[in-house]
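Internal tracking record. Fields below are filled automatically when a chain is submitted to the structure queue. Please do not edit lines marked as system-generated. If the sequence contains nonstandard residues, flag them in the REMARKS field before resubmitting.
Queue: standard
Priority: normal
Entity type: single polypeptide chain
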Amino acid sequence: MKKQYIILGLLLSFIQLAQAQFTLDGEFRPRAEYRHGFGSIIPEAAEPGFGISARARLNAGYKTEAYKLYLSFQDIMVWGENRQILPYDQNNSFAVFQAWAELNLGSGWSTKLGRQVLSYDDQRILGGLDWAQQGRNHDAALIKYKKDKFVLDLAFAFNQDYSNPTGFVSVGNQYNTSGFFSYKTMQMAHLSQAWGNFSGSLLLMNNGFQNDASGLNDVANLQTIGTYLKYNKGAFGLAANAYLQTGEAIYGTSYKDVSAYLLGLDLTYKTSDKVTLGAGVEVISGNDETDASKTGAFFPLYGTNHKFNGFMDYFYVGNHANSVGLFDVHVSANFKLGETSSLLVKALNFSGEQDLASGEKSLGTEIDLVYKKQFKGYALVAGYSHLFPSDGMYELKGVTEAEAASGQNWAWAMIVIKPKFIN
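SYSTEM-GENERATED OUTPUT FOLLOWS
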């Protein structure tokens, strides 16, 4: 609790010293979920899951001609996780989500230092992952340049996990944090340019991963290179992704040479003020290598992966790494039901980019529905998804069709409140 009191005191001090240049806003987002096949096939014998989580954020900003300062504190609460009258947060979920300073260097240049969100293009490779209550951030130094419609961002990170200021002297630079492609080093360049109805970007990124089981300072470097292109004219829209991965990645304790790709194409057409239709395809390479030291599997790393390949998160959301890849064909319709409400209907058909061990490729079809309603001061968002698995999905997830529940579905609803205390 001491941390919360200190933070509250700092915020009050900021208000008193610089109210005219100070902003303070927040977010409260409770979400209820019914899970009966979310993320993987649920067996008939298993009980569905139901729970309520909430994200509470407090964001403070301070701006001068020379610099900007931004602090974002959050706590993720699951209803009932703390016993009654417990004097501390049992899951220790209180965290600094963002803490950065951006310095104005002049002539279009600036630098942004600290914990921050890196979100670019359609968030396929780098995104804020706002759907997840905890979100995604990076501890990095960002050098920024902007002139007219050209933007250049350069990011650099060197991660360490020692617990005291002198601890790293005796253990060198061994980085023991692993899982979910946690990196030790990162270098990134993102260039974007807009020309009328067309815009394009180029991403060059290197991530260095520590082999924490080796006992050495060995680092495997994985490069992701690609482009995002977007064209809009009138009612028609087109967007494309093309990325390659090369270098090395670590799966478990093993190094693998990577040669992989991702290709995506999406079209939208606005038939009226109330209806927008969409169609698209995405191909993500899978691993068909017989050599255990190599892989052809692409992984979209730090994107908002929940946004892609179905909202039930069967692929690339903490899963499906070094697997058979994915061939995703999807169609959608977004209906504007009124001035303050909308309904998204989306259908996706999945296949493996590579054959499974049985020779099967077909994985199934998913239907996603999302309803949004804006009220005065808050919003309601609710959704329902249903998966119709094929034989390949049962094989991929390791549950036989005989064992699986007859219906695989997921339903959720959340309230989003974003108050502005000082603007």
